[in-house]
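Students often ask why inverse folding is considered easier than folding. One informal answer: many sequences map to the same fold, so there is more than one right answer. In these notes we will look at a single instance of the problem. The structure comes first.
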């Protein structure tokens, strides 16, 4: 007989069974879990979200109050039921104070003990603040820090199964949020505030998920959303299923009364700022009144306009009554005119433009040291010696003053990092794809003055010019992380510069692509820390891999390159990007089925593995390719595409009717097995649509596609396989495990439920170690799965080959909730043996 006794939360519990006893203290059993929690939270902490929130200004006292008293906001704040009242969309034009309002709501309005407030500020100038997965990572991090009891073993298991890929998957993170918000006994109301949705690059996916949530698919969740964005029609269209009922507040006001309230609050900002300027510049009372009257007289003013205009006034030299009168008579009336005036005051507009080229093109914000170095390199592009660069390099604090002198208030420095003043500053300055021909052709001032191609060319030349200096400058020059930046991003800027034939950028790029040069090993080693780059001694192969079309064209023109050269462990140049491939195919000297010396992959295999639809299509059109060549691990192009979930590529390959659809790799896995393993529903559908596909094919472990779908929790794929009515639902692999065993072992409640509902599974089946699905779920602490199995009358007393029961396994691994559940079940069995009852 097995028994378990809890002696208190700090002492542990004693377990006894036929083989003796095990004593585990709570402290001991929690050490392993604490480490898992630490690693999981570290993984979720993808950006310093609190620091980024605090970049936004605090509100001026008295402002934002019309919003917090707005009926739609107060209704949203009060509501607890799951309906559209739990979603609020706040829209506003640029400069109306969305982010200041959002910070105020997070810091002062919504925080209380009854709810967990989470937030994320989307921002286009940070790569880690542009995507929905990053937002969900930050939100989950905040939830688990505030409410650690919500971080279940089931969620922690995902760290082991998915690793770092978890924080890249929006859907997996969203599912975690859904499961956490469903824990009614534990969860306080969770409020998610998302600012600047228009700056989220994959907002479509996020809005679709929120829309489905409010269509009633998760009515038991204690979850509310407040989202801000610009009032773009395409964002409103994404909410089309909710559009007629979606509560929305426009920060510009929806009626005369609201407009007046907003105008009053902007007036408070003007009064506060004028008062501060008056104290700093010792203005007399009549001068202060004059300033305030002139500013409040401007119609349709926004918070951004007030800030820009007062910054101009605050930095005005010679603050006399006469100057004040003249300035206020010619105040900029729009944000754009304020931007023009700021930049027109530059001491050297040509230098200012170069600096703005660099700032706007940079992949991430530069530090003062980095921008100072980039500027010194640019000055010496024609003679980029280390001595010349060093002579023109300004120390950080001196460069801070130079930057202010050249760019004025248009740029700001926060924690020594350089940013444009506002998102609208970049939109004002940089030509976009939406800029009209008329706008571009009539550029006379600063509006649309920067072409992205030119900005990227400036920065690409700077980066490439620095690469040969990295080693020599180790101790002599302060440069922040510019070595890494230039090594990792010169290629990005090269591509975005769209350099045409004859451009000096192409010549400079060619010089650093030679693996036999001194410079190549230095930058490629830094590049390889974050990116793959092949080992080769061929310039052509490196340029082809990097997609440097202009450089490839230049090398081919010399006639002094081996088009089919491979280098140690590398592929032929034909294996890379489409534009490069067209150039190489044009030589008519390519070996179409050439294999690399490491994996034995052909160009078609490489293109399929990387999901390059256009390249696959081009190769298939040539018609000289072997359709199902196997690499060193037995993988064909179709297998590789299915393994990566590349639906379009799989479809192209299947349409040739020349693919071996049941080809097995060295592990015995077919394309269908690999697609099922990855959960690629669309690819599984395509493969199941082929009559010859073997649905019950077994790999070397004796597992069919159903096994892999169940093991990895892919509910939709399991359903697809069920619909074929050809799967063996209860077959065993070489370890004696069934799909039910694997789903239970990995905690996939939905898949376990699907399998149980078929009534074609043996719930007490044992694997080679004598463990049943219940034993496995108990061992890993999956409480929800244990409940399902007990509800289906799984045998609680079964013993494995070591004499352990589900209860003893749960106790050994410290899963207190599962131990309590199993004990309760045992008690009920002893009192109601043979009765029909529902213990759950």
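Output (designed amino acids):
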């Amino acid at each position: 007989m097995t028994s378990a006794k809890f002696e208190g939360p700090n002492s542990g519990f004693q377990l006894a069974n036929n083989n003796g006893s095990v004593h585990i203290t709570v402290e001991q059993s929690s050490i392993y879990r604490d480490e898992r929690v630490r690693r999981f939270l570290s993984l979720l902490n993808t950006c310093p979200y609190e620091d980024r929130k605090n970049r936004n200004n605090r509100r001026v006292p008295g402002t934002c109050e019309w919003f917090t008293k707005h009926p739609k906001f107060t209704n949203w704040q009060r509501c607890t039921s799951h309906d559209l009242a739990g979603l609020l969309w706040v829209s506003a034009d640029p400069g109306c104070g969305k982010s200041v309002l959002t910070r105020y709501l997070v810091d002062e309005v919504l925080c209380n003990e009854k709810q967990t407030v989470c937030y994320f500020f989307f921002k286009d100038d940070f790569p880690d603040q542009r995507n929905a997965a990053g937002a969900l990572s930050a939100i989950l991090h905040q939830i688990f820090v505030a409410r650690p009891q919500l971080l279940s073993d089931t969620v922690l298991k995902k760290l082991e199964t998915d690793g770092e890929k978890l924080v890249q998957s929006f859907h997996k993170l969203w599912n975690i949020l859904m499961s956490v918000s469903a824990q009614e006994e534990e969860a306080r109301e969770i409020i998610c505030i998302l600012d600047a949705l228009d700056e989220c690059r994959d907002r479509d996916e996020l809005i679709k998920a929120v829309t489905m949530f409010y269509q009633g698919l998760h009515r038991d969740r204690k979850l509310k959303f407040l989202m801000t964005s610009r009032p773009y029609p395409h964002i409103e269209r994404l909410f089309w299923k909710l559009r007629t009922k979606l509560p929305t507040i426009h920060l510009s006001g929806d009626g005369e009364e609201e407009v007046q309230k907003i105008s009053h609050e902007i007036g408070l900002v003007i009064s506060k700022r004028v008062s501060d300027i008056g104290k700093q510049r010792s203005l007399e009372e009549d001068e202060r009144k004059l300033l305030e009257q002139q500013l409040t007289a401007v119609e349709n003013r926004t918070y951004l306009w007030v800030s820009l205009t007062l910054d101009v006034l605050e930095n005005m030299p010679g603050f006399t009554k006469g100057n004040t009168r003249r300035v206020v008579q010619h105040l900029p009336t729009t944000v754009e005119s304020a931007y023009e005036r700021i930049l027109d005051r530059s001491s050297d507009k040509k230098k200012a433009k170069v600096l703005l080229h660099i700032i706007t093109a940079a992949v991430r914000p530069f530090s003062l040291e980095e921008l100072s170095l980039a500027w010194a390199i640019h000055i010496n592009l024609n003679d980029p010696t280390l001595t010349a660069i060093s002579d023109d390099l300004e120390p950080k604090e001196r460069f801070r003053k130079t930057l202010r002198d050249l760019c004025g208030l248009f740029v700001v420095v926060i924690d020594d990092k350089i940013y444009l003043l506002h998102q609208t500053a970049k939109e004002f300055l940089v030509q976009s794809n939406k800029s009209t021909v008329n706008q571009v052709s009539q550029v006379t001032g600063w509006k649309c003055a920067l072409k992205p191609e030119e900005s990227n060319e400036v920065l690409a030349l700077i980066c490439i010019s620095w690469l040969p200096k990295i080693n020599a400058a180790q101790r002599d020059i302060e440069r922040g992380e510019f070595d890494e930046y230039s090594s990792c991003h010169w290629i990005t800027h090269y591509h975005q510069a769209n350099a045409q034939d004859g451009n000096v950028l192409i010549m400079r790029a060619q010089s650093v692509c030679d693996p036999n040069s001194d410079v190549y090993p230095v930058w490629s080693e830094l590049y390889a820390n974050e990116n793959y780059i092949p080992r080769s001694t061929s310039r052509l192969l490196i340029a082809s891999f990097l997609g440097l079309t202009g450089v490839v064209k230049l090398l081919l023109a010399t006639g002094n390159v081996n088009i089919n050269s491979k280098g140690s462990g590398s592929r032929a140049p034909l294996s890379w990007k489409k534009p490069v491939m067209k150039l190489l195919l044009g030589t008519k000297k390519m070996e179409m089925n050439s294999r690399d010396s490491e994996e034995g992959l052909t160009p078609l295999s490489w293109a399929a593995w990387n999901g390059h639809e256009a390249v696959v299509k081009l190769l298939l059109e040539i018609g000289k390719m072997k359709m199902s060549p196997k690499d060193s691990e037995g993988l064909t192009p179709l297998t590789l595409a299915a393994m990566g979930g590349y639906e379009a590529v799989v479809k192209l390959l299947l349409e040739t009717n020349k693919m071996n659809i049941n080809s097995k790799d060295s592990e015995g896995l077919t394309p269908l097995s690999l697609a099922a393993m990855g959960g690629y529903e669309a690819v599984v559908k395509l493969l199941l649509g082929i009559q010859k596909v073997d649905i019950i094919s077994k790999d070397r472990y004796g597992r069919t596609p159903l096994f892999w779908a169940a093991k990895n929790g892919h509910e939709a794929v399991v359903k697809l396989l069920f619909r074929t009515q050809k799967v063996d639902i209860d077959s065993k692999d070489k370890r004696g495990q069934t799909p039910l065993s694997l789903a239970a072992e990995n905690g996939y409640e939905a898949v376990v439920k699907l399998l149980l509902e078929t009534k074609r599974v043996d719930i007490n089946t044992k694997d080679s170690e004598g463990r049943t699905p219940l034993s496995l779920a108990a061992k890993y602490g999956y409480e929800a799965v244990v409940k399902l199995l007990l509800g289906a009358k799984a045998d609680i007393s079964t013993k494995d080959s070591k004499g352990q029961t589900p209860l003893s396994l749960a106790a050994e691994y410290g899963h207190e909730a599962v131990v309590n559940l199993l004990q309760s079940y045992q008690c009920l069995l002893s009192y109601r043996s043979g009765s029909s009852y529902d213990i759950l």
